[in-house]
Amino acid sequence: MASIPTADAEQTFEIISSLRYDPSLPQATLYNSDSYPDPQNSPYYLLAYHRDRLVAAARHFGWENASKWLQQDLSSFERFLDESIPDRSKPWRLRIVVDINGKGSVDVNPTAAFDPFNLLTPSLHAGRPSHLWRPTLPSGFTTHKTTARNDYTAARLRAGITSPAETSEVLVINPRGEIMEGSITTPYFRRRGPISRLSGQDSAEPAWITPPLSSGGNAGTSRRYALSQGFCVEEVIPQLDLVDGEECWLSNGVRGFMLGVVVLGRQAEKQI
């Protein structure tokens, strides 16, 4: 099992957050104003959460200049992002990069258009079809998203995944045998027993669980959104509890929520 990079191993790194720009997003949030965080008229998916995530990372690493720059108001932050959009009529995948000095930059790449309702929590999909994804040492570099991602990239390559656009994923396991996260997503699984150990919900009611941050995974923006809307609760998910062929959900800040199916065995990369 490869180790997660440490500050000593990575002489220089930057903090990052990836999000979606989609001009159709305000159409979906307009009709679900009670279940989507402000600003609701923004084409940037979960904008405030991405800004908060970067602030948390800057504070964790003691980057005062970066923290100060990131705490600008959301309108100013959105204008900063606007400068990078080549064509505002199309969706884009943005990668925000901030260095220790508080210098921000944005990498922009085309991304596929899809139903904007996929960006809302699954409880709001109202039966809409989704694409199937096949899911295959905790530190500050796993809790916070940075450019130090060589081990995540290696895990994806071992599973034959070469592009963020592919509909496959791998799951990251910590040394205790707990699911941490996906390599680029947050996973959600059905309750592992008759009554969810933490939620206490009755078995007759649907419930989804996601790994707690104590398992070492990333504090993702779509994860925060799912928790805030009551779609899921946090619960430790042992690797051995996974069931081949069971449905799960996956989410990230670019593609929203995607329905997946667990594939166990040699095809599935379960550890980095």
Salient structural properties:
272 residues, alpha/beta, D-amino Acid Aminotransferase, Chain A, domain 1, D-amino Acid Aminotransferase, Chain A, domain 2, globular, disordered N terminus
List the helices and strands and how they pair.
Blueprint: E1 15-21, H1 25-30, H2 47-60, H3 64-70, H4 74-82, E2 92-98, E3 104-110, E4 132-135, H5 140-143, H6 150-158, E5 168-169, E6 171-173, E7 179-182, E8 186-190, E9 208-210, H7 221-228, E10 232-234, E11 247-252, E12 256-261
Parallel strand pairs: 4-5, 4-12, 9-10
Antiparallel strand pairs: 1-2, 2-3, 6-7, 8-9, 8-11, 11-12
Helix pairs in contact: 2-3
Describe the structure.
The protein is α/β, with parallel strands linked by helices and 272 residues long. The chain folds into two domains: 15-115, D-amino Acid Aminotransferase, Chain A, domain 1; 122-261, Alpha-Beta Barrel (D-amino Acid Aminotransferase, Chain A, domain 2). Helix content is 21%, strand content 21%. The chain contains seven helices and twelve strands. The protein has helices at 25-30, 47-60, 64-70, 74-82, 140-143, 150-158, 221-228; strands at residues 15-21, 92-98, 104-110, 132-135, 168-169, 171-173, 179-182, 186-190, 208-210, 232-234, 247-252, 256-261. The protein has a seven-stranded mixed β-sheet with strand order 5-4-12-11-8-9-10, covered by helices on one side. Strands 1-2-3 form a three-stranded antiparallel β-sheet, with helices on one face. Strands 6-7 form a two-stranded antiparallel sheet. Strand 2 and strand 3 form a beta hairpin. The longest helix has 14 residues, at 47-60. The protein is globular, with a radius of gyration of 18 Å. The termini are close together. Mean pLDDT is 82; it is low at 1-10, 127-131, 194-199 and 266-272.
